Amino acid sequence: MTLIFALLVGIAMGALIQRVGASSPRMILASLRLENVSIIKFMATTIAVGTVVVYVMSLWMPMHFDIKPTYIVGVLVGGLIFGTGFAIGGYCPGTCVVGMGEGRRDAFAALLGGITGALVFTLVYTLIQASLIKPLDYGKITLATVLHMPALVVALALGAVLLAVVTLVPTERRARAARIGR
Amino acid sequence: MTDATLATPIAARRTATALPPWATLGIAFGLVSAAAIALYGPIGVSGTYPRFVGAVLRRITPEYAAANPYLVKMGSLVTTETMLVVGLLIGGFLSSWLGRSRGPAIETVHARETTRARRYADAFAGGFLILFGARLAGGCTSGHIISGITQLAVSSVLFGAAVFGSGMLTARILKRGY
């Protein structure tokens, strides 16, 4: 049953990513170059709504939370590598799959690159484990545990800050917006 | 004053009250992401790539696959995450088909992408780096940035800051090509 739920979540997510233009490498680069930040605003709105809804729901029902461990070196180095690749190709691991569904041929090249990257990571895992993954591991910590505050309070504050930022910051830089479209 | 000049503010007011697409679609995605956590668990994508690699290697070199600690840790391809990735493909297809925007032209993003082959090379190189980086950090845009920050994970906030820091810097260094 959970497999069916996941398939439906994937279909909805794929459709939303396609509609907002996040599967377009040009829209990704327009966001990273701060020319048109609508994709960043889309992500920030998603997080704001999601965090408030899950922590309000958690008051009444058990939620399937799964917090990722904070091993500082690996998370930061991985993030820096990810950001570089994100800017070079204009795809992330999910948007290239959506792009393939949409019929983008370069999305398939990104997917093949991704499979190769995952293969290389698999081959070097034991070599980098000790230096990049094991050190400075603080385990499954959240902003709520670090700040010693109830999760719902932190979620409401985070949601409010993100919504304020997406409302106040302009989406487009005028001069270049016309050339990007959408 | 003509009718045309009077009509302009009314049109402007109408567009100002309607939410922009990123807001309505973002609210919808937030509800979908919350529904996933309520029903089975947070959304994620990048773990599917090494699980796929594992499924292939278990056929080609079963001994190596069984001895590789990372493939053992990631496990079988039969997971909710694989179903989600299949859904992404279907969702992207359906949405572009219904919106009559299937098969868009290849978009160049950097000035050096002067030929189709160079665009493919950038897409491949980008794909390689995002997966290597995501597996090192333990998640990607959906697992870390969307559902990780939704769950207030410190690791995901650090990952998001690193991604946008290096992403914006790299995008600035590479000359725009669109």
SSE arrangement:
The complex is a heterodimer of chains A (about 180) and B (about 180).
Chain A: H1 2-20, H2 25-32, H3 38-57, H4 72-89, H5 95-102, H6 105-133, H7 143-147, H8 151-168, H9 174-180
Chain B: H1 3-17, H2 21-39, H3 48-60, H4 62-67, H5 69-74, H6 80-98, H7 116-137, H8 141-150, H9 154-173
Helix pairs in contact in B: 8-9
Structural class of chain B: mainly alpha
Helix tally of chain A equals 9
Global mean pLDDT of chain B = 92
Give the overall shape of chain B. globular
Strand fraction band of chain A? under 5%
> Oligomeric form of this entry?
heterodimer
Descriptors:
heterodimer; A: 182 residues; 9 helices; 73% helix; globular; B: mainly alpha; 0% strand; disordered N terminus
Structure description:
The complex is a heterodimer of chains A (about 180) and B (about 180). Chain A is about 75% helix and about 0% strand. Chain A is mainly alpha-helical and about 180 residues long. By secondary structure, chain B is mainly α. In chain B, about 75% of the residues lie in helices and about 0% in strands. Chain B contains nine helices and no strands. Chain B has helices spanning about 5-15, 20-40, 50-60, 60-65, 70-75, 80-100, 115-135, 140-150, 155-175. In chain B, α8 (about 140-150) crosses α9. Chain B starts with a helix and ends in a 5-residue tail after the last helix. Chains A and B meet through α1, α2, α3, α4 and α5 of A and α2, α3, α5, α6 and α7 of B.
